Amino acid sequence: MSKSKKMTLSKKQNLTGWVFLAPGAFLIFIMSFVPMFRALLLSFKSGIGANMKWSGISNYVRMFQDTVFVQSIKNTFFYLIIQVPVMLILALILASILNNKDLRFKGLFRTMIFLPCATSLVAYAIIFRSLFANNGLVNLLLVNLGILDQPYAFLTNTTSARIVIIIALLWRWTGYNMVFYLSGLQNIEYSVYEAAKIDGASAVQSFFKITVPLLKPTILLTAIMSTNGTLQLFDESVNLTSGGPANTSITMSHYIYDMSFKYVPNFGYAAAMSFLILVLVAVLAFLQMKVGDKRD
Amino acid sequence: MYVFLCIVSFISVFPLYWMVSAATNKSADVISGRLIPGGYFMENLNNLLAAQNIGRAFGNSFKYAAILTIVSLLVSSLAGYGFEIFHDKGKDLLMSIILLAMMVPFVATMIPLFQMCSKAGWLNTTIGFILPTISTPFLIMMFRQSARSFPHDIMEAARIDGLSEIRIFFQMFIPTMRSTYAAAMTITFMNAWNSYLWPKVIMTDSTSQTMPMVVANLTEGYVTDYGMLMLAVLICTLPTAVVFFCLQNAFAEGITGAVK
């Protein structure tokens, strides 16, 4: 008899659990998975506004013939390949320096390096746009120091526009990733480093032999997050370079936005392009997890 | 080592310092490279108020972000608590499906979400702003992680004393997990305040525009008034900076929980 009573109690608790998690889980299904499938359906339709017709894979064919979109893929990957590794390595180095027990003003340095995270994406994009403008502070400095004869149009030259975006991204996100590494490092006993030091390991050696292997799960997490974020870059492309010059710094999300809401809305085509981002995110996350596992 | 740290810190802080100093200077002085704060703050403020309805945008942003933060913390922590405290095979499986949603990029759901909101008449409304991000896999995961450290025997004792499950959550879990809530609040408020793409999509009416949207509008003219622009950027940064300074330690602690 007591057994059956216990069963009902656990059943009741089980039900309570479902009630607790229902609103959150339901919202994620309705706001994430359902729109995702609707975007997939939409990507096989074409037309303007409400007049949508099935059109097979024509959107996907068009995508790879669209020079601007192909350019935006190249730009996004350019940012990804250069910015993410540089940022993560820099963040790791900073975190392992700041983890040093004997370091003075540790809290001050940490706060200062983390400070850029307090700015909004639009705000920092505009700050960097102003700093690198033709009459901005960077040009003023370079001309006064005699490095340049006349102001250089950073934002209207292809390569420099892309590099300014990368510099801005590094500025905004390095401290953020550093905090993740610092948190991860707290789980490593500091005595491990002291023992390594006694055994004659240099700082560089303990970085590669202790810090990197033990922080691997955190590194994997930050790598996946940054890749995900970079593939969806929007604010910087819009507010820093306006995608220019001639779309050579435009990101995929920026182009998709323009296609959907700025020009004559073409939701089918935009949905097809956004689905490519989804596939890219999934494939890259999968690859990173594979690589992350292998080194065990 | 100290030299390296000082250089990095300088680079991190300088653009922000420049923003503050430019906000108090005349545009011409900013262009000529003046780096010390000046006395042109009030003029910049008047120009800014004349150029854009900053007060309304600030109010809108604050309203959207505050409501989203409250609702999101409640829904996500309830879910995280439910997943951990009452966990069984079915719930664990559902949790891993929900974590997959983290991989779904926002642009891939943006168009159907826009269609849904426009059909339901939610364009230019708070509900339209908050709906897609009330419940996020990241926050659910964070609260699930922290619920793991919620002592089971205290809960059993409370149950024996006849406390209902919902009261255990509100009267015991929430007060115990204050630091997790603080971290979640920081993250949610900052993300909501800073969000740009989604408001740009659904806030089609100028009266419901958010602060970042209005600041971005300021750059559209041909000649830029740097003093006024940087003041707008400064005002846009202020709320997140305040939240950041108040809750910086809680944020780091919360991340530590998530990383573990």
Q: Which descriptors would you attach to this protein?
A:
heterodimer; A: 296 residues; mainly alpha; two-stranded antiparallel sheet; 13 helices; 2 strands; B: 260 residues; 14 helices; 76% helix
What does this structure look like?
The complex is a heterodimer of chains A (296) and B (260). Chain A is mainly alpha-helical and 296 residues long. In chain A, 75% of the residues lie in helices and 3% in strands. Chain A has helices at residues 2-42, 58-65, 67-98, 106-114, 121-131, 137-144, 158-186, 190-198, 203-214, 216-231, 235-241, 252-262, 267-294; strands at residues 45-48, 51-54. The model of chain A has no long low-confidence stretch (mean pLDDT 88). Chain B is mostly helical and 260 residues long. Chain B has helices at residues 2-23, 27-31, 41-51, 54-85, 89-100, 107-120, 126-130, 137-147, 152-160, 165-176, 178-194, 197-202, 211-217, 226-259. In chain B, helix 4 crosses helix 11. The longest helix of chain B has 34 residues, at 226-259. The model of chain B has no long low-confidence stretch (mean pLDDT 89). Classes of the chains: A mainly alpha (296), B mainly alpha (260). At the A-B interface, helix 1, helix 3, helix 4, helix 5 and helix 6 of A face helix 1, helix 4, helix 5, helix 6 and helix 11 of B.
Topology (SSEs and partners):
The complex is a heterodimer of chains A (296) and B (260).
Chain A (H helix, E strand, L loop, with lengths): L1 H41 L2 E4 L2 E4 L3 H8 L1 H32 L7 H9 L6 H11 L5 H8 L13 H29 L3 H9 L4 H12 L1 H16 L3 H7 L10 H11 L4 H28 L2
Antiparallel strand pairs in A: 1-2
Helix pairs in contact in A: 1-13, 2-13, 3-7, 3-10, 5-7, 5-11, 7-11, 10-13, 12-13
Chain B lengths: L1 H22 L3 H5 L9 H11 L2 H32 L3 H12 L6 H14 L5 H5 L6 H11 L4 H9 L4 H12 L1 H17 L2 H6 L8 H7 L8 H34 L1
Helix pairs in contact in B: 1-14, 3-14, 4-8, 4-11, 4-13, 8-14, 11-14
